[in-house]
NitT/TauT family transport system permease protein (Citricoccus muralis), 310 residues
Amino acid sequence: MTTPVPTTSARTAGDVTSAPATAPPPGGTSTRGAASRQPSTASRSGTGRAWLLAIPVPIVLLILWTLGVQGEWILPFGIKMAFLPTPMDVGARLWDFAFGGVMNDAFSGTLWAHLWASTLRVLQGFGLATALAVPLGVVMGRSKTVFRMLEPTINLIRPIPVTAWAPLTLLIIGFGDRSTVFLVFLAAFFPLLLNTITGVQQVPERLLEASSMLGTPTSQALYKVVLPAAIPSIVSGMRVALGLAWVILVVGETVGITTGLGAAITQAQEQSRTDLIIAGMIVIGLAGFAADRLLTLAVRLVVGRRPLAT
């Protein structure tokens, strides 16, 4: 008499019910744990690769800049490189601008006061634009009636350059911080508004229907469905608006402002100090870059792993 042999299906069922889904490797680390670390490792590797790709470009530009000044190159548009300082001269000025001890003039060690004043103006103008443009954009994106009422007027005002507003602003507001903040607000408002409208209008109706079928009340669909779906477009508009805010800052601080990066550049232009002008430009670029990264990080902390515009 032979002993009955269990079938393959019976062994499989027993294994599934009795054995763990994934057995830990001999080293004691589970496969799930290793898989969870893979995205972070890949992310760090991608960040390092991005920095490696980005570093050579500024190095090449610095080399060409040095060669152009030494060779007195004349570039298209009649740009005379002989009139520019070398990168080493700008570096020395930038250090003196920040910490002093090199030139020992009126601008030595004043960078942080200028940067702080400019940052406050950008934050005020950008914050006011965000507080008004995002809610208005959501309303215009959801209501066709409101959109038809406001869209022609907005598109009539939007093409007017902020630089054209500057003389009128000085007359109706006057010199000082408020006129600069108003110009920054104008520069940031329209790109943020248009991106918010577009993001809200592009939310698929099927998504709203699906949320309704899953029990989401109509009164809650705005902040549970519409706003989360529109976040990538809104964030994209915020990044563009923040960049424009730093661009317009120099225009706003040109007249009637004594402390600020734009004011420092204007004073340097009056004294024909090209090294200080370029140092101020570099600081504005770095400040705008840092502001964009901080904005992206803040939004990422709020929305978690939801995809964002890059």
